[in-house]
Amino acid sequence: MIDSAGPRVLLGHGTENDFVVLPDPDGSVWPEQRLDAALVRRLCDRRAGLGGDGVLRVVPSRHVPDAAAVLGEALPQCEWFMDHRNADGSFAEMCGNGVRLFLHVLLTEGLLDRAVAEAGVLVGTRGGPRRVGARPDGGYWVDMGPARVLGRSAARIGGAEFPGLGVSMGNPHLAALTDVPVDTLDLTVLPGVDADFFPDGVNVELVNVLAAGDAPGGASAHIRLRVHERGVGETRSCGTGACAAAFAALEAGGRTAGTVTVDVPGGRLSVEFDGTTTVLAGPAVVVATGVLTPEWLAS
Ligand SMILES: N[C@@H](CCC[C@H](N)C(=O)O)C(=O)O
């Protein structure tokens, strides 16, 4: 997808977790040696580049060198691969907001039929295959797989300790439930974490439980969170973080199943647990489409 002016690019977000999206439908535009960490950092630069919390390359799985290793037997079923990078250029295993935007872009770019998307498609990610679907109301859902408990740890913010639950959603999270209103906390700097417990780094969520939702037949649980993302900084939303935080909120009440409404600075997500898997639902928006100029690419 290089027209005479330059390679095609889109800007989009899911609950204001924003991404630079690079369509690469035949794998020729953005091979890994071209889309290196330095270029990812430049694209995500909000002043000298386009700006984003990360980059999503939309590419067929067969053109991704490590796809076979991460997808195994599911490789033939995953036509498309979400090649995600954090704003600092690092790779992440999974991105819950990104994968909804990824499906939305497949639709808006004419790379997938709406009927197929509504039935749900398997998308390859570095965390393994994930089934993603479009809802008739315009929103998207993704089966994120089970939340895996890593154990108990704590985050330190401004001299205060926030005990939390380590949860893997493919990528690592520390979800700390607290009575301190999350809007009063300084998350602009990375919270202190136990680097031995999280050797690959960690995304940190600070969570207020607004409603436990544990009355029989009652409403869903309701939480509010802020997040500091590995490889990015504070963001306005994190889909995997919403799942980890929702799981921690249910676990605190002794439950493994239920629905949780998750308010993030950038909007609202919904997370459903049935005891075996986790389904995240929310919006995805394309803000702009255009091309990267040869002038900027060469600079
Ligand atoms: N914002 C994403 C998560 C992106 C990856 C994360 N920063 C990591 O390094 O694990 C989401 O919506 O899940």
Automatic annotation (TrEMBL):
Domain of life of the source: Bacteria
GO annotation, biological process: lysine biosynthetic process via diaminopimelate
Any Pfam family the entry gives: DAP_epimerase
PROSITE patterns listed in its UniProt record: DAP_EPIMERASE
Site (Could be important to modulate the pK values of the two catalytic cysteine residues) location in chain: 173, 229
Principal localisation: cytoplasm
Molecular functions per Gene Ontology: diaminopimelate epimerase activity
The protein's annotated pathway: Amino-acid biosynthesis; L-lysine biosynthesis via DAP pathway; DL-2,6-diaminopimelate from LL-2,6-diaminopimelate: step 1/1
Active site: residue positions: 95, 238
Keywords per UniProt: Amino-acid biosynthesis, Cytoplasm, Isomerase, Lysine biosynthesis
Subcellular location field: Cytoplasm
GO cellular component: cytosol
Residues at which substrate binds: 17, 86, 96-97, 171, 203, 229-230, 239-240
Assigned EC number: 5.1.1.7
NCBIfam families assigned: DapF
Stated family: Belongs to the diaminopimelate epimerase family.
Protein name, as recorded: Diaminopimelate epimerase
Gene: dapF
